[in-house]
Amino acid sequence: MIARLRGLLDSAGTDHAVIDVNGVGYLVFAAGRTLDRLPKPGEPVTLLIDTHVGEDHIRLYGFLDATERDWFRLLMTVQGVGARVALAILSALTPDQIAQAIAVNDPKMLVRADGVGPKLAARIVNELKDKTAHLSLAALTGGGTAAPGKGANGAAAPAGSVEGAAGAGAAGDAVSALVNLGYGRTEAFAAVMKAMRNLGEGAELQALIPAALKELAA
């Protein structure tokens, strides 16, 4: 079972790359966002690999980091999501955006991916909501991005598309304030994310809290 490849980039296509490892070319399928971040042909590259063995084939799926790989695996736990659809989702959305879509119950974000219709998008959100309910808060408060299922002690979990330290700090403080008021972290996070989408990512704490409370009361 191949778990990682380190070699030179031989070539890259719209959905795959060929990695030259000591003269052997390995065909690796990958998401568009991953392929866009690869170096130029002839330069060194390292990919984490998820190996799929079928009755008549062995396919390698490549990722630049563990977050992408673990979201790939998590997406495929949903009925109707195979490797091709999982890669399409990771091509259309970052792991942070996928986490946001699930956290705020917004399947429309997932429909951006090729092969994902409204019904499948809703199923993905519903089936993964419980599995990812503990994610997102750490990255919102500045911890960065981590793979699904990993806590802040090793690396922080994926968050929404909040950018900038000021915005992340205000959002994290707003979530903490709502939790102190007795709301659950998941619903507090969802309310703050909706408030930020309405007010803008530069919204200050004084505006975020009442806007999030309004969302919770709706």
Radius of gyration: 19 Å
Structural class: alpha+beta
The residue fraction in helices comes out at 40-55%
Which fold name corresponds to the CATH topology of the domain at 67-134? DNA polymerase, domain 1
Strand content: 15-25%
Total helices: the number is 9
Structural notes for this entry:
Among the domains are: 4-64, OB fold (Dihydrolipoamide Acetyltransferase, E2P) (Beta Barrel); 67-134, DNA polymerase, domain 1 (Orthogonal Bundle). The protein contains nine helices and five strands. It has helices at residues 32-36, 66-75, 83-92, 95-103, 118-129, 137-143, 165-180, 185-199, 205-217, and strands at 4-12, 16-21, 24-29, 44-53, 58-63. The protein has a five-stranded mixed β-barrel. Strand 1 and strand 2 (16-21) form a beta hairpin. Helix 7 (165-180) packs across helix 9. The termini are far apart.
Short account of what is shown:
With 218 residues, this protein is of the alpha+beta class. The chain has 9 helices and 5 strands. The protein starts with a strand and ends with a helix.
